[in-house]
Amino acid sequence: MEAFKIAVTCIIAAVLYGIIHDQFTARICIEYFTIFHPPILHTQSPTLLAIGWGILATWWVGVFFAVPMILSARAGSNPTLRASEVLPSIAFLLAVMAASAIFFGVIGYMLARRGVLATDWLTFTASPALRYRFMADWWAHTASYGTAFVGGVVLCVMTYRRRLGQGAKANVISE
């Protein structure tokens, strides 16, 4: 049952992050969702696009992350961790992802505005300002996924090491 709770926690965390993240990026550049993504959601509402894409683009990240997290927290003979014990670490990872998205979104915008990043390939608009905002969204989304992957691996390793430490303490106490 705890493994299921960890899986649900990972999926809900990923989806909530995706929806909140997309609420911001859909307002920065709605074209990122209406042009750069397939037309699954036929709306121009940034709120609805953010909810829809927040779910569609992140539930699978939660599933993908849940499997190694369950193994890190539960597999083997060392003391196991409950979902409630891994939730703070997952929340911290989401905060790091958000900070990374903000940082790299701003960097993407600034680099595009200064001409360091080519935006001529963005043929959906002649507006340089819209192209800069598009690059901010793209960099923010890429940073979120990259941070989620690297941070997820680090979090799984830290979770397993935490269990090893608890097992070592239990052995010392029992001796």
Describe this structure in words.
The structure is a single chain. It is built from six helices and no strands. The chain has one domain (2-174). It has helices at residues 2-28, 31-34, 46-56, 59-74, 83-113, 128-174. Helix content is 78%, strand content 0%. α1 packs parallel to α5 (83-113) and α5 (83-113) runs antiparallel to α6 (128-174).
Distance between the termini: 31 Å
Overall number of domains: 1
* Share of helix, binned: over 70%
Q: What number is the mean pLDDT?
A: 92
Relative strand content = under 5%
How many β-strand runs?
0
List the secondary-structure elements in sequence, H or E. HHHHHH
Number of helices: 6
Give unreliable regions as ranges: none
Major sheet characteristics: none
What would you call the structural class? mainly alpha
Looking at the structure, what is the overall shape?
elongated
CA gyration radius, whole angstroms: 20 Å
Can you give keywords for this protein?
single chain; 175 residues; mainly alpha; 78% helix
How would you summarize this macromolecular structure in one to three sentences?
By secondary structure, the protein is an all-alpha fold.
SSE arrangement:
Elements (H helix, E strand, L loop, with lengths): L1 H27 L2 H4 L11 H11 L2 H16 L8 H31 L14 H47 L1
Helix pairs in contact: 1-3, 1-4, 1-5, 1-6, 4-6, 5-6
